[in-house]
Amino acid sequence: MNPGTPAPVAVRRPLLEDFSLEMTAKDGPRLEEARALVPAGTRVNVTFLGNEDLELRLAAARTAGRLGYVPVPHVSARRLASREALEKLLAGLRADGTGGSLLVVGGDPATPHGPYPDALAVVRTGLLAEYGVRHVEIAGYPEGHPAIGDRALFSALADKRAALAEQGLTTGVTTQFGFDADLVLDWIERIRDRGLHVPVRVGVPGPAGARRLVAYAARFGVGTSASIARKYGFSLTHLMGTAGPDRFLHTLAEGYDPGRHGEVKVHFYTFGGLRATSEWIAAF
Questions:
Q1: Which positions ≥6 away from 279 have C-beta within 8 Å?
Q2: Hey, which of 71, 107, 145, 270 would disulfide with 98, CB 3.0 to 4.6 Å?
């Protein structure tokens, strides 16, 4: 579909209403550039990367709030060196008024840098509510996790939701980006069958070069190069073009049934191209 062609109502509503975006701590200037394209009130997730420090993360969350967005800073459990480091982050967010909503994930390091081996360990500290957090997003993996089996993943979702509810915090699930919309919808049904009736934000790769899409998929263990090429319609022998998630979103919209899948929104991973993603969404 030509990005300038209006999307069918089935795609725009309700899936694209209240979409959210991802940014790195270094993306503040790019968020400023995209301001005219991103509606006020949009949730903007601020990642917790190993090459970015506390001050950068706090500044990015402040920028998102100043521009009229809802900052959702990430907390990467395995990257936290100590309880003090967690409290310093939470205190900084509270002081800036940007810590009402967080996304808590386990994180990439194979060995924890401190006392928190996973997101549940952070939740169980009780510090989130103590520092004014009201809502916590947790991670979902519709296409699986390269290091964790499905049974453990489903169990972790249930445990985190229960721990958050005990502390009076609301929750939702933001999924890892994926390329197979049918598989995502099936996964949502499976968590509903297990009693997890919270909002789900489906991770969608923003427009990116085909080579970059394949590289990110390999890095995070999401799909295979062949499956991405098939779903996105490009050739593995010619990776020079740019691919957008048109097909993914249309397939998601066609299969989405509110009665079976509950509340579902879309979360765009920008892969460093925040303005390009914002332009694509506005045109779509």
A1: 34, 37
A2: 71
